[in-house]
Amino acid sequence: MRRRETRGWSSTHHVERRNSVAVACDLPHSLTIGKTFLVRNRNMSPTSATEVAFFVVAVVQGVFALLWAIGAGLVTERRPLVYWSFWAGLSAITWLTLAMTIESPPLLSVLAGVAGVISLERGVSTFTARPRRNVLHIALPIVVVVANVSLLDLQTRHLQAAVNYGVLAWLYLNVTADIYNYARKELRWRWSVILALPVALGGLICSLRVISALLDPSSVVEVMAADSLLNLRTALLAIALAMTLHATLVGLVVARLVSELQRLSRHDALTGLLNRRAMEESLNAQLKRSERTKEPFVVMMLDLDYFKRINDRYGHPIGDRALQHVAALLQSAMRASDSLGRFGGEEFVLLLPNTPMDQGESVAEQIRKLLDCSPLDTETTNIPLSISIGVAQWRADGEDVSRVLSRADAALFQAKVQGRNRVVADGSEQRLESSPTWQGAPLV
Questions:
Q1: Strand runs (DSSP E) across 254-293, as ranges?
Q2: In the predicted model, what is the mean pLDDT of the chain?
Q3: What's the CA dihedral at 394, 397, 401, 402 to 10 degrees?
Q4: Residue 235 sits in which domain range?
Q5: Residue 443: inside a domain, yes or no?
Q6: CB count, 10 Å around CB of 65?
Q7: Are residues 376 and 327 in the same domain?
């Protein structure tokens, strides 16, 4: 038994010795590589703290990639979430590759990182309805490939790093601009910069890496050291940055939902105009302003003539289209300061701030003529439309909104009684001083 074990050991030892001789005789520099590998493995622990941190970043991004993919399957507008899932997944691949080959990351790892941030930008631009930068998204990976293939010498390695980080910085800053503009213009947030700050921080970090690589080329060697303190700090910062980036994206989704709920609570679902409650809020706000400044305002009650006949003859879908057509025409005649709402059925209310009665009557007549010469064009026929309008001006003697609406409604009733398709002004109001002329859209 002992003899067999000795023979097996001798055979194995003989094979290992023969392989060692073959490797040593293969190429002149193979011995140098072998010695270097042995020295590294004697002086380094098998897994450094930096590699563990990089692996943690990869796991975090991988989990978020899965969560975004699940979320994309639960919503109808899934394209932004699919892009964000690709971003997190490609980022996970990049960090995992860096954890395994930190001193010499392959080109595939760099491209995965760039493609991931491109997916992040495309997701944000899709979500915020911003123009896509298709040419840029094709050109930047080509620039990265050229830089990583041509700048391989130690003397030009810092330029390679500058190009890589510069591309990432550019992409991050584009995402920052898209988020900031969306939060400011669409969501109307006062602190829009807070939502864009995490992405801006990513762009700032990459920009600082570009400056560092250009001003201090030796810093690139320090970055490539597997267990450098700088790499460890980078990994920890990347974890915090990834979490805040995902929180930003979740914040965008939640903000969109809240904004949509607020819009639905204040706007009519069919026409997109203010609903009755929101219109009453606008009227009360104007009343308080007029009580303070004594500026006049006019309220119109508008009713689409013979709407029931349209529904009975052509059907309710055509009736809905008629209401949408009228709403669009009324909106085209408004100033930015005016408010227009659907009060119910085929009845609308138009508020004209800083407008005296004579100008209010003139505007009402222009609106009547506009609808009279703008029939509803359907697939089979043109349906003529007309509207009756009652006009009332607020009195400066403490009159409340309900009283102004009541007088406008009474004038509308008179317009109906007198034959429809006409404007009737309430004649009992106290006329205020004339204000600046009407600046609404031109009516024909």
A1: none
A2: 81
A3: -110
A4: 44-266
A5: no
A6: 21
A7: yes
Q: What is the pTM of this model?
A: 0.63
CA dist list (Å): 426 to 27, 36, 234, 413 = 104, 98, 73, 11
Label residue 171 by pLDDT band (50, 70, 90).
very high
Residue 444 domain-assigned (yes or no): no
Both 126 and 175 in one domain: the answer is yes
Q: Are both 57 and 183 inside the same structural domain?
A: yes
Query: What is the rounded CA–CA span in Å between residue 345 and residue 310?
Result: 13
Q: Write the single-letter amino acid at 441.
A: A
Are residue 196 and residue 252 in the same domain, yes or no? Answer: yes
DSSP per residue over 358-372, as a string? HHHHHHHHHHHHHHH
Q: How many domains does the chain have?
A: 3
- Per-residue pLDDT reduced to its tens digit, 53-66: 788 889 999 999 99
Strand partners, 299: 351, 392
For residue 81, the model assigns a pLDDT of 93
Cβ atoms 51, 102 nearer than 8 A: yes
Token pair of 280, please? 């009453």
DSSP state at residue 388: E
Is there a domain that residue 396 lies in?
A: yes
DSSP strand pairing (297-304 vs 347-353): antiparallel
Instruction: Give the angle subtended at the CA of 297 by the CAs of 293 and 298, to the nearest 5°.
Output: 170
